[in-house]
Each structure stands twice: as C-alpha cells, then as structure tokens.
Amino acid sequence: MTISFDRSTCCDLNETISREWLVTNGLGGYAAGTVAGVLTRIQHGLLVAIPPRATKPQLLLAKIDEEVTFDQRTYYLGTNEYRDGTFNPSGFVHIEAFRLENGFPVFTYRLGGIDGMILEKRIWMAQNYNTTYIQYRVIKPDRLTQSAHKVNSSVRSSTNNNGRSSSIAEQARPEPMILTLLPLATYRPFDLPQRGNTSPPFHIQVHGTENQASGNEKDSQLKLPAGIAGSSIFIENNPSPYHLLAIGQPEMQATFIPTGVWYWNFLRRCDTVAGQPDTDDLYLPGVIRAALYPDSDAVLTIVVSAEELSSQLYQQETISLLYKKEIERRQSNLERALKPQQAIIGQSDSEQDQQLHLLPLTTTSDPYAGGQNYLQQLLNASEYFVAHYSQSTETKEPGRENRPTFRNSIPRPKAPDKLQLIANYFALENKTRDALIAMPGVLLVTERYQEAQNYLQDLANYFIGGILPDRLPTAHQPLTDHDYSSADITLWYFYALDHYIKVTQHYEFLEELFPRLAESINCYIQGTHNGIQLDTADGLLRAEKTGKALTWMNEYHNGKPVTPRSGKPVELNALWYYALVLMQGWSERLGYIGHIGYSASIYQQHANRCKHNFQQRYWNPDHYHLYDVIDGPEGDDASLRVNQLFAIALPHAVLEQPYRQHVFEAITQHLVTPYGLRTLAPKEAGYQGHLEIDIKQPAKQHQSLHQGSSWVWLIGPYIDAMLSQWGEPGNEQDSQVFKEYLWRKGMQLLEPLQDRFTVGLLGTCENVFDGDSPQHPSPQAAGLLSSAELLRSYNKLVQMRIEHTERLLLSQ
Fold this sequence. Notes:
Domain Glycogen debranching enzyme C-terminal: 415-792
Number of strands: 38
Number of domains: 3
CATH topology of the largest domain: Beta-galactosidase, Chain A, domain 5
CATH class of the largest domain: Mainly Beta
Pfam families: GDE_C (PF06202), GDE_N (PF12439)
Number of helices: 19
Helix content: 25-40%
Structural class: alpha+beta
Strand order of the largest sheet: 1-9-10-11-12-19-16-15-14
Domain Glycogen debranching enzyme bacterial and archaeal type N-terminal: 19-295
InterPro entries: 6-hairpin_glycosidase_sf, 6hp_glycosidase-like_sf, AGL/Gdb1, GDE_C, Glycogen_debranch_N
Radius of gyration: 29 Å
Region (Disordered): 149-170, 392-411
Shape: elongated
C-alpha cells in the first residue's frame, strides 16, 4: 500500500506543509512530521517516547536537518518556519518525490540537476521498541524507478542490476556525497514547547570508537565499532538518557562532532490556529558527518533510541531483521484480512474468493480497483491508536543516574501490561467511551481478541456504583470523582462486550463479568451518581445534574456544558434497552449451560416496559422523528439531532416499525453529509455550519462541535441502520435485489472518505468536519472513532457481500 506524491506536489509548499506523516511503535510512542519537512505542531518529532518515571510522553528528538555537499555545491534539505514567518532553509524545493510505503515515509531528493543523484531518506519504527530509524542512501536517477519499492541495504542483499554481488573494487568509485546531519534535540513533554533560556541544561556523552584511545577509563566500556559514531543525551536531574547513533560502513567515516548550540523561535503554525503556544526552541548537541558513495548499496542509518544502550542497537543484522519482521507483520495483517472467513461452497481459498473481501468501487471500470489499497490503509490506520503502557516504574542505582548502561545481550521488546486505545492525534487522549465504541473495529475486525478481552477485563475493575470512568488511570494520574461523569459509558461497555462475545463465543469470560454487569444494571435502576436513575413511572432512564454534560455531547464553554441534554436523552434509553435485552439473553444462555441463579425475567420485564414507553414518549408526530430529550428542565427537546440514530442502529433496536423508516428518512435528508453526519439539523435554532476556529478565542470551537459539525464515525451506525432494513420485500428475488441496492449504498457512503487518506494526516481520517460545504476538518489531525468505524463498516459490507454471493450460488 503506497500513498505517493510527485515533484509537482512536493515542490508546492502549500500542499506539503499540510500533509503529515505518522509512525507508531505500539507503546504510545511515535514519530511524526510533514512532507515538507516543517514541524507544524508542538507534538511533531522524530522520537516521542515514555521514559521510565515520566508522567506523559516526552519529545526527545524533534528533527534532523540535512546538508549535502555534492559536485562542489552544498544543498540544504531541511525546511524550518520561524516566528517572523520566514523559511530557512527551504529544502522542500529539492524533494523529487514522497511516498508512504507500508506506512513508512520515504523522501527522495534530487541533487545536481537532471543528471545528478537522488538521496533517499526512509523513516520507520519497530513495534514495542522506543526507537526511530532514519536511513539514507544514494540512488542513480536511472535506478530510481527500479528502486522505488525496494527496501534499503539493511534489509536487502548487496547486488547490482544483473543480480550479481557488486564490489567497490570492480569499478572506479565516484566522488561521495558528504552528508552533514543536524539533529535538533529536545527533552520535554510532547505537548509543551521548550524554551532554551529556562530548560534544564543538556549533557552530551560522546562515545568513541574501538580504534580510538581514551584517557578516561570509565568510558572504555562504551567504545563503538569502527564506522559507528554517536552520543547519549541527558538533561539535568533526569536519569533517563536517549541515544543518537550513526551506523555505516567504516569507509563512510561517520563522526559525531559536539556543538552545543541553541536555535530559537521555530514556529508551529497549527498551534497558532488553535490558539496554543506556538514557538519552540531546539538544541543542537552536535553534528553527524559521513560520506555516502553513489553506485553502492551503502546505507547510513541514524538510530534514535530511548532503550538501554546495547550493541544490538547498532548491529546491521538486528536492524535488518527488525525491518523485515515489521514489513512481514503488516503484510500478514492484510493477508489475514483478505482470507475468506466463510468459504464459498464448491470453491477453495482462491484469488476470486479473496476479492470478495475488497471493497468494489462503483465509479471505476474495474470495480475492485483500489480495494486492496483502501483495506490496507484502514488496517494501518487502526494500528496507530493501539498502545500498551507499562505500569511499573524503574529505579536507578545510586551514583549512576547520569550514565547509560551498556550490555551485549539482545534487547527484548517491552512487555507492557496495560492496553489503551488512543482517542486522537495529537492530543493522545485516553477516553473510555471512544475506546468501547471503537473496539469492534480496531480490535475485533483485526482479530486482536486477547487484547480486547484484556481491555474489558481491566476496565471492569473500575466500576463504582455501576458507573465506569471517563478514562483509565495511569501510574501518575489516579482516578478521581470527576472522572465518573458520564451516564452512557457503562452502557457502551455492554455494546463492546456483546461484539466480543459474538465473535469469540467466550462465555466463560461472560460468566466472570456477569456479577458486575448485574450490579451495574441494579445501580442504574435504584439510582447512582449524577442523577442517573430509572423513572418508575415509565421505565425510562434519567440522567440529570446541574452543570454537567453526561452524554457524548460533553463539551464545555466557560465551565458550562454547551449541550447539557438533562433529562432523558434518546440514545441513553436506546442503549439502556439494548443492555437489558443483552442481560436477558445472557442470563438465559448461562442458565442453559448450567449456571443457576441467573433470572432473565426481571430484565425482560424492564426491557418490555422501556420499549413500550419509548414509542409513546419519544415519537414526535408533528415532525415525524424522535425527541432528542424528554422530561428536561425546559420540557421536551424536539431538535432534530443525530442521537436518535441509535434507536434504529443498535443490534437490538428499541424503535419499532413504522417509526424506524421515518426516522431514517429524516436523518438522511437533514444530517447526512459526504464526511459523516451532522450533530444538529441546519433548520434548527443554534445550528453552526462551520467550526468556530478563532485564534483569539480557541474555546469557541467547543461551542460548535455538537451544534451541527459533521462527525465521521456516525457513518458506522448510519450504515447499520440502513442495512437493518434487509428483508423488506416479500419474495426472495426482490429481497436479493434490495440487499444489492443497500450494499452499494453503503459502499457509496465510504467512498468519499477514501480521499481523506491522502490529505491531512496521511493514511488516516479526521474525526470532525464542518456541517456545511465546503467541509473543512477540525484542527485535530485524526481520530480513533473515525478509523474504527470505517474499518468496522467496511468489514460489515464485505461480510454482507459474501453472504449475498453465497445465497445467489445456492439458488442457481
């Protein structure tokens, strides 16, 4: 899977400065930047990791600027924007092409004109290591096409175009490129700027090579092999260093030259728009210099690592193996997704069967063109949001706080014990609701069943009064009463668990959780925190507390909820009915397999009463859709909001026919946009068709998020609601035609969002857009919910296609 841009795009700063790339390591760490090379966010950097005892991710190395001397000329390849608006240097003009290959960014720079050379830079991370690799190699222009999709020499054999081993002795060696690298360092929280005049001093420990004499005996154990140079970087009063190594062949003569220079006032333009601190100072600990020869497969690899300093960090064999395993892992994910889960009768696992797992695009002559590329993008996007965090804290031996340890054993990947689903980039928020809604797409479609179970099991430990917290605790941020402020999160837990049980049939796990589930339902019935209680008059759930927003529309402005929705929100009771039906079914199931004491009748009674009164109370006969909230402080809210979608989209829909069709038509007519569903219809009072982005008043954006903005993730439940209309026609032939129509409509809804993977944060999709055209995205780069629901919906349409094809074959 490749997203690529040619020179015409790469040399246009307006195009490249707005396109971002992201690589993650599965530990909550990442590397990120822009195609132009400019850092446009405070959170951008080449290594963001969580060192021991850190309270949040730390940005360790911001970027590396390149200076290349070739053919008696120096080329400055870096691009930086400063506070006064100037760009210096403007290296983006040398970018020949950019591609995102297997999720990794690859830059190619043309040096010396049309007959010059091509310098390739590739950036990648391996899963479960706090390490970023930046690799450079030289390519002749006539080899560029042949080499475009080849990996570097650390993962390929050294061969010439005839497949024979090449040797420097076989041909006269041309003049090398002299590569000077400027690593610009930080050591700060990833979301806070660094100030050179107030930051703790940096300490740089330069590592010598084995053939260099050292007058300092204590440094003798840190000798690096010939061809490797580097240093360890500390800040004062911090025991955790990170390491910067340049790995090449001895003839490259890689050296690290200490400098210790501050560069001031880099501008981060995205933070300017968001009204956040937008300037950053960066420290240059030293420069790396090496010679890169054309006509060879030599590669210079820069390793930036927060791991313990080990010989394995600079061994080419280890780097090669890690890269190979990472590519194989990504390809395996795609192959597993393409493998049919339901074999067509009379056929084997053939290429034709596999095609059924690709999304046919109706606007192309080949209906499957781009399908595999789109699926790979969705799979890669889902990985960005899955992170594991270790809850342990590391201690250092007294007297060794500012010295790296050095060992020769093979470094093992981290063995983290807590899974989190990151809600967004680049805020890296931990949101329980988002995680539960996203779990079916991110963890179950991708067959990460053990991780899904671990997350559900861990989260179950934090029930208090039947309520789940808004976030999971961390080692440095324990939960408080304020974190238990949502009425619907517990009910979304039932939603995620239902999907998990359906896929895994893991009823032993259900039995383990059932007492907590029963207790939670009882707490909702009897009454619990924040005014959450069942109304005995109609069997509907109420959630009301002054000054609180208890649903997913939970934005605040000046300390007050923008959309309080106090009373009986429509989706809260749709979820309540869904949970009751699940409890009824689960009780019967556990009783059937021999677990006594689980009575289904009480849940059935509550569910029946809820469903009956839901039809009576929420239906608005004047507008032919549902009230958004009933029994609120100001009466019933008749606003046409998207929340009623869940009354027809959940697997056990609370709304009966013929109301469903009317609600679906109202939503389709007033709320559906190319990039998701509006939260409020344009005809309603208070509608805001565009996100309020004001540099002087950044909080104004919160006022518009649920007042008409379009949310991508809502396409998922909308497709669920649409597909639930299966079987309406009377005869089989009409039913098959109707299903074909619904299936194609679902594909048409996903198709416009395919384009979003090549703009903004490449390979992902934003969460929120303007409600009105032109639909611009919010400043947030990408969200968990949108990626998860796109993947879940894609998978659902695929399974529908398979089932539809099977039935057609059986009827012939």
